[in-house]
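Journal club side-thread
Mid-discussion, someone asked how the predicted structure for our own chain would compare to the paper's figures. Pasting it here so we can look after the session.
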Amino acid sequence: MMELRFGSALRDDFKQFWLKITREIIYRVKILSIDEKAVLLAGNILAGLRKTGETVGLEDVLIASSALANQHTVVTANTRHFSRITGLQIENWLEWVES
C-alpha cells in the first residue's frame, strides 16, 4: 500500500488517482502487516543483495519479505527488481494482458 500511495502522491491528479487505486486495487487484495519475521527477512535480503553488488529499493524489499514470510506470490510488472530476490515467486499479469 505504501508503494501505491507513494506513486499516487507524485501525480498531479493525486486525489482522483488515489480514489481509483483504492476502489480498483486496495479493496480487492489482502494487505499484509510487516511483522518480525518479515523485517528479519528484509534484513537478510538487503545484506545478501549488497554482498553481490545488487540493489533493490527498500520498498521492494519490504514487499518481497512480506510475501516470503506469508508464502505469497508478488504480482508486479517490475520483474527486473523482484527477480533478484532468491526464493520469491513473482508473476507479471500485464504480460498476459499485452499478449
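Post-session note: Residues 73 and 89 are 5 Å apart (CA to CA).
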